[in-house]
C-alpha cells in the first residue's frame, strides 16, 4: 500500500471571449477558493482560441489534480467524447487550432485533469464570474487594438 497522500482535486472554471468573433480576445480562470487570473490579446483571435488559452493558463498557474469546468463543448468534448484520438489519427489534418491543441496535450501529459461541461449563462456563479473576467479582458484588449489603429 502506498503511503503517498493524494492531493484533493481543485475545481477551476475557465472561459474565453472574443469581441467580435473573430476579434480581440480575452481568457480567464477562477477557482472555488477565489484565486483567479485573466488576460487579453489585442490581435485578431477567436473565441475557441481563447477558450484553449484559458485552460492552458490555468494549467500553468495551478498545481496538482484539476477539474476544469468549461461552458465550451469545443474544450470538454475534445476530451470527454475523445475527439483528440481522431485528430491524432488524422495527424491533425483539417483541425483548427492544431498547434494550441498539441501544446495543451503536452501540458496535460503529466497531469491528473478532468473536464466537466457546464451550461453557460445559466446562473452558475463561478461560470458567470469566469465569463465576466474573460469579457472584461477582451474588452480591454479591444481598447488597446482600437488605440493602435487610431
User: So what's the overall shape?
Assistant: globular
Overall helicity: 40-55%
Which CATH architecture is right? Answer: 2-Layer Sandwich
- Biggest sheet: strand arrangement: 3-2-1-4-5
> Count the strands?
5
Poorly predicted runs are none
Percent of residues in beta strands: 25-35%
The multimeric state of the shown protein is single chain
Q: Termini separation (Å)?
A: 65 Å
Tally of contiguous helical segments: 5
Order of helices and strands: EEEHEHHHEH
Return the domain count. Answer: 1
Mean pLDDT score: 94
Q: How would you characterize the largest beta sheet?
A: 5 strands, mixed
Structural class assignment: alpha/beta
By CATH, the topology is Nucleotidyltransferase, domain 5
CATH first level: Alpha Beta
Summarize the structure.
With 150 residues, this protein is of the alpha/beta class. It contains five helices and five strands; from the N terminus they run E-E-E-H-E-H-H-H-E-H.
What does this structure look like?
By secondary structure, the protein is α/β, with parallel strands linked by helices. It has one domain: 2-Layer Sandwich (Nucleotidyltransferase, domain 5). The protein is built from five helices and five strands; from the N terminus they run βββαβαααβα. It has a five-stranded mixed β-sheet. β2 and β3 form a beta hairpin. α1 packs parallel to α4. It is globular, with a radius of gyration of 16 Å. The N and C termini lie far apart (65 Å). The model has no long low-confidence stretch (mean pLDDT 94).
Amino acid at each position: 500500500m502506498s503511503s503517498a497522500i493524494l492531493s484533493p482535486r481543485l475545481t477551476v472554471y475557465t472561459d474565453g471571449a472574443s469581441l467580435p468573433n473573430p476579434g480581440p480576445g480575452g481568457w480567464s480562470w477562477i477557482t472555488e477558493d477565489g484565486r483567479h487570473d485573466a488576460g487579453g490579446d489585442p490581435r485578431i483571435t477567436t473565441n475557441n482560441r481563447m477558450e484553449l488559452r484559458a485552460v492552458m493558463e490555468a494549467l500553468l498557474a495551478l498545481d496538482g489534480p484539476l477539474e476544469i469546468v468549461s461552458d465550451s463543448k469545443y474544450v470538454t468534448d475534445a476530451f470527454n467524447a475523445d475527439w483528440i484520438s481522431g485528430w491524432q489519427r488524422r495527424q491533425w489534418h483539417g483541425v483548427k487550432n492544431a498547434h494550441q491543441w498539441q501544446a495543451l496535450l503536452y501540458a496535460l501529459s503529466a497531469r491528473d485533469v478532468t473536464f466537466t461541461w457546464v451550461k453557460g449563462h445559466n446562473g452558475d456563479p463561478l461560470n458567470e464570474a469566469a465569463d465576466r473576467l474573460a469579457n472584461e479582458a477582451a474588452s480591454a484588449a479591444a481598447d488597446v487594438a482600437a488605440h493602435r489603429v487610431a
